[in-house]
Design goal:
single chain; about 325 residues; mainly alpha
Length: about 325
């Protein structure tokens, strides 16, 4: 079970890259700044580098602030391995479903929800850290999209004012900065999302070795590589939904959207908040889409996306609990 736990964790990281990896470069592609192949390939490299270089604050939030690690580490080791495996399996089911229907829900929140469900099924509600989940997950889930929306709008307003009388030279400079922002957005996303996988696997490793929770370098490299590979091989599925269906994207508002998303995700990386890059990207696109009129946004599509955000945690919690019971029977 120990090795299967690690294997399914890396599979989850790969599916996470497939599910969300294309989202972070969707506006670069739809604005025709980069070709789809080049954008996704660059994002994969940036994902890997960000995962390795930007620390482990988010990983420890996942491993220590969702389910109380004490009963996991002091109880039966197989029970701990089953908890981790069920959490990954439950999230995988939800992510594959939303990937097939091209609905940009949060792979990160599905994992957290599945952890909650698996934890309740295996250890009861008393060991679920509800206060921490409310502050670090639920509040962040609502605040980060709002921040992305308003930061996207503000960045676009500032950009338009600064470049009102810009020459062609400045337009070329903006193109260059835009390409850099695409890289750093994928860089930030890679760090936040890969760390979540590291944090959950780290619980199982601590139980196996009888040690404190830590993130060894080999785990960091493995999760980073799996996430990057998922982005490169499957990161196209969400591009149309985020980059084309929400609002009309061009070079100007694409750049503003990316800068807003980088700002929010970087703040989350520093504070250890496991936010959803998908939510922030999508909401920042909505923000720039309302530049001239709210009618510039397809609210029907955004309504579907918002509904998916709301049901992701409870739906994946239910699936995680079912997966735990199935694994116990097996």
């Amino acid at each position: 079970m120990f090795y299967f736990m690690i294997f399914i964790g890396l599979i989850f990281a790969y599916i996470n890259g497939m599910h969300d990896g294309g989202t972070v470069v969707a506006t670069s592609i739809s604005s025709r700044l980069l070709s789809a192949g080049r954008a996704v390939g660059t994002a994969g490299i940036a994902n890997f580098l960000g995962s390795v270089l930007l620390g482990t604050a988010v990983a420890f939030t996942i491993s220590e602030n969702i389910v109380n690690p004490v009963p996991l580490l002091t109880g039966n080791r197989d029970g701990c391995f089953t908890f981790v495996t069920a959490a990954f399996a439950g999230s995988l089911v939800w992510n594959i479903f939303t990937w097939i229907v091209r609905l940009p829900s949060s792979a990160s929140h599905s994992m957290i929800g599945s952890m909650i469900g698996s934890g309740i099924a295996g250890y009861g509600t008393v060991y679920i850290m509800w206060h921490s989940i409310f502050v670090k997950v639920i509040l962040a889930m609502f605040i980060s999209p709002v921040a992305g929306f308003f930061m996207g709008y503000i960045f676009l307003m500032l950009q338009n004012r600064m470049l009102k009388n810009a020459t062609i030279v400045w337009s070329r400079r903006i193109m260059f900065l835009h390409k850099l922002s695409s890289f750093f957005l994928a860089f930030s996303y890679g760090s936040n999302d890969a760390q979540k996988v590291m944090g959950l696997i780290a619980i199982g490793l601590a139980s196996f070795y009888g040690s404190e929770i830590s993130v060894p370098f080999w785990l960091m490299l493995s999760c980073s590589a799996a996430l990057a590979l998922g982005t490169v091989t499957g990161g196209y599925n969400m591009i149309k939904t985020v980059g084309m269906d929400i609002t009309k994207i061009n070079i100007q508002n694409s750049f503003a959207s990316q800068m807003a998303t980088i700002f929010v995700i970087s703040a989350a990386n520093v504070t250890g908040l496991p936010i959803s890059a998908t939510q922030v990207v999508t909401s920042s696109v909505m923000g720039v889409g309302t530049e001239k009129t709210p009618k510039g946004v397809n609210w029907t599509i955004t309504g579907r996306i918002a509904a998916a955000w709301l049901i992701t945690i409870p739906a994946s919690a239910l699936i995680g609990a079912v997966m735990f019971k199935i694994l116990i029977l097996i």
